[in-house]
Amino acid sequence: MVTRTKRAGEDRLIKKYPNRRLYDTQTSTYVTLSDIKGLVMANEVFKVIDAKTDEDLTRNILLQIILEEEAGGAPVFSSQMLSQIIRFYGNSMQGLMGNYLEKTMQSFVDIHNKLGDQTKGLGAGSTPEAWSQMMNLQNPLMQGLMGNYMEQSKDLFVKMQEQLQSSQNLFGNFPFTPQPTKSEKE
């Protein structure tokens, strides 16, 4: 089997064929959604394209993985949360909502990484099992910390909305008078 090496700065390329199979061009093998999830978990940068049209299908594949994960056990998204997200589609705030969710998720990842860094020096205590046990013991504390963080995020978002609403008349208060049109001059 010939393995294509990835060039520096180049995303790993996965091609999706009409038979719904996924082909990893780097390893010259067919892969599954589970393999793609493994790439995500390993922080591997990749791109999934349609083999015929070159259309970028990466988001679709990631959404499929999320759907499988949500159906497979303890879901991350509640029905209420999913309904709220759906309501933002087509709304004037859709772009802002996506940006807000992305930044909030990044903050959550940063907090998680910081906690992970702080436990690295604990030796055997930093295994995933030990981390899980610690989280279970500290669950009320962690829920409180995350609850406070989310409440602060919500407050900031509400303040931003209020500022946007108060600035709706932003252009109406400029100290200039509109120039008369040609028909008004005559």
Give the low-pLDDT segments: none
- Describe the main β-sheet briefly: 4 strands, mixed
C-alpha geometry:
globular
Radius of gyration: 24 Å
The run of helices and strands is EEEHEHHHHHH
Strand arrangement across the biggest beta sheet: 3-2-1-4
What's the average pLDDT? 78
Number of DSSP strand runs: 4
Q: Quickly count the helices.
A: 7
**Which secondary-structure class do the elements indicate?**
alpha+beta
Query: Which strand-content bin applies to the residues?
Result: 5-15%
Q: What is the helical fraction, as a range of percent? A: 40-55%
Domain PHB accumulation regulatory: 77-112, 127-165
Protein name: Polyhydroxyalkanoate synthesis repressor PhaR
Pfam family, one: PHB_acc_N
InterPro entries: PHA_DNA-bd_N (IPR012909), PHA_reg_PhaR (IPR010134), PHB_accumulat (IPR007897)
